[in-house]
């Protein structure tokens, strides 16, 4: 039996087996999407599906044949690695309803092991073992007769011609394919992550260029002023009592005097882009000088405290991680975001400058293990799902865990406002803006990261909360209509209002300032 299993086969047969297995094991979600989203007649739908099957088999056959014939053992190793990644990709597609596009790949690159490990489960490892490791072993161990260069050329050339012919026969489907290219490309294995990894790598290379400096500004007064910008993580507006949620997830902030609550949307559905949008002066693919970097260069005392990752480049003297803060404040539990708020009053009052900017990059509502993001005393809503796999079986338990993170956020922000209010020698302000929202099982979707064109509202409708001390700055009125009048704010803000509002609060006069994106007079 062992000899029969390991009997050599031709490279042609090996490539056929790998191609068919790739289609059947890893691309069922792709064909399910095509079936559900094409409006063609039954005959047209069958022809499209059959054509896509032929194209996929031919392309995968050709690429497998060329890879093994040209690189031999290296090609086998590549196929084995792709098998494991394919299985992992399909698991996340089926479990979390994700699409493996450039956004997803960027999220993978910007996720620490401590967060990635939250996705690990027995079900995931079993899935990867059966659909990934076993096919990988076959790719590594199956003896292959390579054949001649002529046979390689004929086989691959025939596959290419077949692909082109079938593609031409489906020329009429070009518009439909173009309209759904993001979804189709994000579900097609292994091309989804191969192509998008190349795209992200290219983007990272471009971003290595030095950020575009903003024109110089100056601080125009010597009044003591502190701004604390809290960047929320995965906090969605829909679950804030302040925005009409039926649960009392904001019992403290709802009683906080002087708190302003704005309707707002994020510019992206993942941390890196959302955080960049909060800190940059305008929406751009370019990397402009960010708020902390610019304020620091203009002479502001700037401190960045983070329990998160994925932010754009920060160039200041004081950049403190949760580990740094835990070492500095050993009496504070370093497992939660409260560590970011430790010793803030002393830090501000010890500053030798008149203007202070503190940025706290939290992780409070980041999944998939929401129940690990808050201390036990904040587990108000019970029972809770310990992870999203449990939450899929009982979405209510997942929502309970998530709502507890919002209760914890409420406590942290309320404590911060009370601290700032007590500092009567300083003008002070607190801004809380989330990087993006979150899906909690609506339409079978979980977490975040879908392209903006596909994302549901809960992934980009975010809280935008502002508090200032008495007699600091006057707020602009908010428009009640579609178009704001002169001097009014629009009904819905976006994240770039932070940059210009903070410049105002810190009395920085700058050509980079845009009064239309300032929430203050």
Q: Would you mind describing this structure in some detail?
A:
The chain is an alpha/beta fold and 521 residues long. The protein has an 8-stranded mixed sheet with strand order 7-6-8-4-9-12-5-13, sandwiched between helices. Strands 1-2 form a two-stranded parallel ribbon. Strands 3-14 form a two-stranded antiparallel ribbon. β10 and β11 form a beta hairpin. The N and C termini lie far apart (82 Å).
Number of strands: 14
Q: What portion of residues is helical? A: 40-55%
SSE-based structural type: alpha/beta
**What Rg do the Cα atoms give?**
27 Å
Number of helices: 19
Short summary:
The chain contains 19 helices and 14 strands.
Topology:
Layout: H1 2-5, E1 9-10, H2 11-26, H3 28-37, H4 42-71, H5 73-96, H6 102-109, H7 113-116, H8 122-141, E2 144-145, H9 149-169, H10 174-179, H11 181-187, H12 191-207, E3 218-219, E4 225-232, E5 260-265, H13 271-279, H14 291-297, E6 301-306, E7 318-321, H15 322-328, H16 344-349, E8 355-361, H17 388-393, H18 395-422, E9 427-434, E10 439-440, E11 446-447, E12 461-468, E13 492-494, H19 497-505, E14 508-509
Parallel strand pairs: 1-2, 4-8, 4-9, 5-13, 6-7, 6-8
Antiparallel strand pairs: 3-14, 5-12, 9-12, 10-11
